[in-house]
């Protein structure tokens, strides 16, 4: 969504972008002998370089001038390449991924709450708040927004549009790495993880509103709660269908998403 | 003209040489899950088989012929497995090793039957041996053999009167679920919750909520390895306190490695285990770790002993004859003193089902600990 807003990039390899940093960590620990903390730092740097800079330079920049559809197809191909590369060069089976936090539980008012879940919710909230502050409260963030709204005018006003777009790709890569570090201890690191994550993230963004950060967050929350309620109190077999039903309903009755803004274009 | 004749003669010589080379080997393709949901099981089975093949080839092969074992990946997909088995059959195999996933075996075993090629599988679904295919042979217990042992443990060991069941919705899980429910009914143990999950499922939060709400005295988990590990992590995260009972797919070392401390306390019945308190199995495990760099699970033993069973039966026959091999394996008992590679005494009954000793195990501090050895059934199940 961030990429779409600033560079009209639809990335169908987003799920794989979340899958890969976990393997950067595991590879750094296994082959480089690094500690978990050092491996995470290295994985973050690699993610910024590969999923941020290289992705923009090698895939987006050459393909985007030919339209959005070629880029969509390119990112689908990229997703396959990333998946098969991890399978071929690391492992086809799921790998345990260490948790950077305690895996104990807390008793809160008679309910058992996992520290792991609290850390994930906390980290997600901090990341969103920091992103919002950066986009709205800093000069660079406002320049990025201006680039997203009208790149031509932004260029006329002296904003370095190319650099702003690159920042967006770097932020996207950093968020993917963070998501990977948070989710892999639960899902285990596996080359197919991107399939599930990518689909859910894409549906959440459309349901919430593709042009609003808060919309995507609300969409993700709605999907997660709905998925678990359906599985727990109705039917586990139909849980995978729920996001798709929701997607169809939103596209039919509110195409801009639950919290999105309707956009008009002159054709 | 003369040049043409020379070329033809050269080609004929090369063909004869290739033919001679082919006659020096025996073809035993491994068709197995190397990716997808069954990758853990398939990789272990493959590596076990490769270890046995390397040992046998190093000693001159079977009846003087070395084993050639090309590998192909079913991707844990029944349709792909069928295509791969057909491809393997086109290569004129002596036997086919694999797959492990019951759903795959169900759709490809008919091809082996039609081609009269013995198939050595790691699949455990009860109904595989109920269709009268004389060319399919297990390397571990079928569910009809293992579930009564688990049921007895729940009744006598845990003294539980109610149990919740979580199973994976594939052929392996469905077969196990049906057999388990039958065995529970036979022992008057109430199944208070019956939860199906999906193959490859990553999020078990809702399923664990349902299990907690069921208030059963024990929880029986029958999913494949990766799902088992994810389930164990979620169960511990939500603070489940009831005993978690399972089969080899819950208590295998790979599951323990993936689940981490969450696996501690899980217990149940294991038909095969690399931690069996037997010197032969311990020595095998050491060899496996040295060769492949990881601790094997029961599927490694399946692949290893499957190859040695073929070797023993073939040497007994004294020739390479697929039909005769299938006949010989039915009703065959192999003892470690006759064939050390079999690791423990194993009998194939008239259906191609396996009988051997088995174990009750518990995960303690990240290791599978065997707490009791159960004798061979001898085809009589203790109800």
Can you tell me about this structure?
- The complex is a heterodimer of chains A (about 270) and B (about 375).
- By secondary structure, chain A is mainly alpha-helical.
- Helix content of chain A is about 70%, strand content about 5%.
- Chain A contains 11 helices and 2 strands, in the order ααααββααααααα.
- Chain A has a two-stranded antiparallel ribbon with strand order 1-2.
- In chain A, α9 crosses α10 and α9 runs parallel beside α11.
- Chain A starts with a helix and ends in a 14-residue tail after the last helix.
- Chain B is of the alpha/beta class.
- Chain B is built from 13 helices and 17 strands.
- In chain B, the strands form 5 sheets. In chain B, strands 9-8-10-11-12-16-17 form a 7-stranded mixed sheet, with helices on both faces. Chain B has a 3-stranded parallel sheet with strand order 5-6-7, with helices on both faces. In chain B, strands 13-14-15 form a 3-stranded antiparallel sheet, with no helix packed on it.
- In chain B, α8 links the parallel β10 and β11.
- In chain B, α2 runs parallel beside α12 and α3 (about 80-90) runs parallel beside α4 (about 100-115).
- The longest helix of chain B has 22 residues, at about 1-25.
- The chains are: A mainly alpha (about 270), B alpha/beta (about 375).
Please give the order of strands in the largest beta sheet of chain B.
Answer: 9-8-10-11-12-16-17
Q: Which assembly state applies to the chains in this document?
A: heterodimer
- How many E strands of chain B? 17
Main β-sheet of chain B, in a few words? 7 strands, mixed
Helix content of chain B: 40-55%
Shape category of chain B:
globular
């Amino acid at each position: 969504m961030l990429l779409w807003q600033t560079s009209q990039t639809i990335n169908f390899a987003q799920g794989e972008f979340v899958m890969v940093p976990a393997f950067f960590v595991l590879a750094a620990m296994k082959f480089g002998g690094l500690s978990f903390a050092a491996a995470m730092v290295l994985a973050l740097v690699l993610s910024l370089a590969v999923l941020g800079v290289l992705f923009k330079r090698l895939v987006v920049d050459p393909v985007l001038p030919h339209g959005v559809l070629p880029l969509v197809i390119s990112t689908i191909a990229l997703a396959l390449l990333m998946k098969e590369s991890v399978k071929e060069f690391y492992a086809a089976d799921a790998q345990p991924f260490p948790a950077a936090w305690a895996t104990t539980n807390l008793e809160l008012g008679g309910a058992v709450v996992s520290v792991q879940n609290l850390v994930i919710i906390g980290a997600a909230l901090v990341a969103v708040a920091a992103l919002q502050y950066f986009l709205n409260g800093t000069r660079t963030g406002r320049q990025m927004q201006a680039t997203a709204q009208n790149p031509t005018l932004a260029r006329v006003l002296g904003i370095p549009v190319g650099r702003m777009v690159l920042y967006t790709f770097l932020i996207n890569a950093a968020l993917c790495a963070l998501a990977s570090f948070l989710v892999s201890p639960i899902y285990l690191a596996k080359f197919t993880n991107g399939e599930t994550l990518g689909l859910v993230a894409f549906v959440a963004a459309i349901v919430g509103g593709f042009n609003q950060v808060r919309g995507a967050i609300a969409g993700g929350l709605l999907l997660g709660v709905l998925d678990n309620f359906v599985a727990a109190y109705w039917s586990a077999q139909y849980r995978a269908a729920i996001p798709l039903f929701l997607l169809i309903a939103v596209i039919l009755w509110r195409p801009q998403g639950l919290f999105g803004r309707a956009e008009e274009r002159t054709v | 003209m003369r040049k043409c004749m020379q070329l033809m003669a050269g080609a004929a010589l090369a063909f004869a040489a290739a033919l001679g080379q082919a006659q020096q080997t025996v073809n035993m393709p491994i068709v197995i899950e190397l990716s997808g949901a069954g990758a853990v099981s398939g990789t272990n089975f493959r590596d076990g088989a490769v270890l046995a093949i390397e040992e046998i080839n190093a000693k001159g092969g079977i009846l003087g012929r070395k084993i050639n074992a090309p590998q192909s990946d079913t991707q844990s997909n029944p349709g792909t497995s069928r295509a791969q088995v057909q491809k393997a059959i086109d290569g004129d195999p002596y036997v086919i090793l694999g797959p492990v996933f019951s759903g795959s075996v169900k759709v490809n075993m008919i091809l082996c039957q039609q081609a009269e090629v013995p198939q050595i599988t790691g699949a455990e679904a009860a109904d595989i041996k109920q269709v009268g295919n004389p060319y399919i042979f297990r390397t571990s217990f079928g569910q009809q053999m293992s579930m009564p042992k688990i049921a007895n443990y729940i009744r006598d060991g845990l003294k539980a009167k109610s149990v919740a069941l979580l199973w994976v919705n594939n052929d392996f899980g469905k077969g196990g679920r049906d057999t388990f429910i039958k065995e529970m009914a036979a022992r008057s143990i109430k199944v208070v919750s019956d939860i199906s999950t999906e193959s490859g499922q990553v999020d078990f939060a809702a399923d664990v909520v349902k299990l907690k709400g069921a208030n059963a005295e024990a929880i029986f988990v029958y999913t494949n390895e990766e799902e088992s590990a994810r389930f164990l992590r979620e169960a511990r995260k939500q603070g489940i306190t009831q005993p978690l009972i399972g089969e080899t797919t819950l208590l295998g070392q790979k599951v323990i490695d993936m689940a981490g401390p969450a696996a501690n306390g899980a217990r149940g019945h294991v038909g095969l285990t690399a931690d069996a308190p037997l010197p032969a199995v311990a020595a095998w495990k050491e060899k496996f770790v040295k060769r492949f760099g990881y601790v094997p699970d029961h599927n490694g033993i399946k692949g290893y002993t499957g190859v040695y069973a073929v070797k023993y039966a073939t040497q007994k026959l004294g020739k390479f004859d697929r039909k005769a091999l299938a006949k010989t394996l039915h009703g065959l008992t192999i003892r470690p003193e006759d064939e050390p590679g079999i690791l423990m005494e194993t009998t194939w009954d008239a259906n191609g089902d396996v009988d051997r000793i088995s174990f009750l195990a518990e995960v303690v501090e990240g290791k599978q600990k065997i707490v009791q050895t159960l004798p061979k059934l001898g085809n009589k199940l203790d109800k």
